[in-house]
Amino acid sequence: MSAAPDRMTKAAQPSRYDIAGFKAEIVGIPVIDEAQVVRKRSRDFFWYSPILNAELANKSADIIVSPRDEAEIVRVAAACARRRIPLTVRAAGTGNYGQAVPLEGGVLLDITALTAIEWQKPGAIRVQAGARLLDIDMATRPSGYELRMHPSTKRSATVGGFVAVGSVTYGGLREPGNILAARVVTVEEEPRILELRDDAAQKVNRAYGTTGIITALEMPLAPAWPWIDVIVAFDDYMDAFQAGYEVALADGIVKKLVTPVSWPIPSYFGALKQHCPQGKCILICMIAEASLGPFKAIIGSRGQVTYEAPSEEGPGTVPLYEYTWNHTTLQWLKSDRSITYLQCLFPHDRLVESAREMIARFPGEVLAHHEFIRFGGRVTASALPILRYTTPERLNEIIALHEEAGVMIANPHVVSLEAGSRHKRADADQLGFKHEVDPHGLMNPGKMASFSPNPR
Prior knowledge:
4-stranded mixed sheet; 456 residues; alpha+beta; 6-stranded antiparallel sheet; 25% helix; globular
């Protein structure tokens, strides 16, 4: 999609950047400069947070640029650097933290045209950063492979985004081997193209688009099992949690998803409600067909299987994983915008005890929803509980009480990378790398708050 210069719709306030000069430098690359369209595309799902919704609602880029290949990205990066115009990278815009929202205007760089699969082989694939995750899996499954992990937004998200489903087996993206390599364009007057391999690729992981423009990724693949979607209903949430924990610990059971969800959250699950008995907590799982027997043996008589069917991702279907991770929150938000969520990581060495403690501490106010994952070879749980929102002060108090109890919070209600990190700081490698690849601080300025641009 492109808007010709003579059809440009002027924004209410003129840009503080030399957009006309920038456009003259990138002639031939598609742009959109209709203010209404640019404003709409400058948003992601930050409205999950009432705090971010107020803070980011009026933020917008000045222009959208849609390069079709890496060479055009290099031209855009050079033009931004020469004219000191901020640049924010955007793909599908499925994030929840305002990662794709240009805090200081400038250029929104849409990379969704970069979709090519450069090569694939047993156990690995190299793709351009705008490739959709579902399309990647469709291309690899005929050879018996699929991506190790994907987000609950798999059907629209691109490979450059965040992944979660599958981390119960393979851990998070920071685990060694979960990103094999990244190709990055620097934002300088003379942009460089860097190839980051193995540990070096972590410099662009979870950096909110502040450490270079990713143009391609090499990712590991896993065997493509026939997955079976299963819902099990329980009378008590901690029974669902304990059963899920045992499944997560069972290395012999091949699984992709283990998600306990407390009542009344399932009452907001649309078409899935018929498989969620009134008043029951549920356990949502994706289990390899060959592992169904051992899975059901672990569940035993504690719960009742209410749904069991092969996983589907085709048109007209809603995959079971779209009721997990932060899609769980979305299911409720579809009919009630008064709630929000937290993003927690529970201690592995007292997982059950701390989960029980947090549930007891906030009855009716923080509604339990956990996701079993692996970190450093240890099974633990992330959590995205539904929170009945009242005030910012109460929200911050709930966060503080979790942290005092040893539950780490990655705060999804703040703008900067540091404030949102469970460690409350930017990774030192990423901070140093940003100085190297973005010396003028043009990439998503304001997102890495501790960064100071090099003297100009």
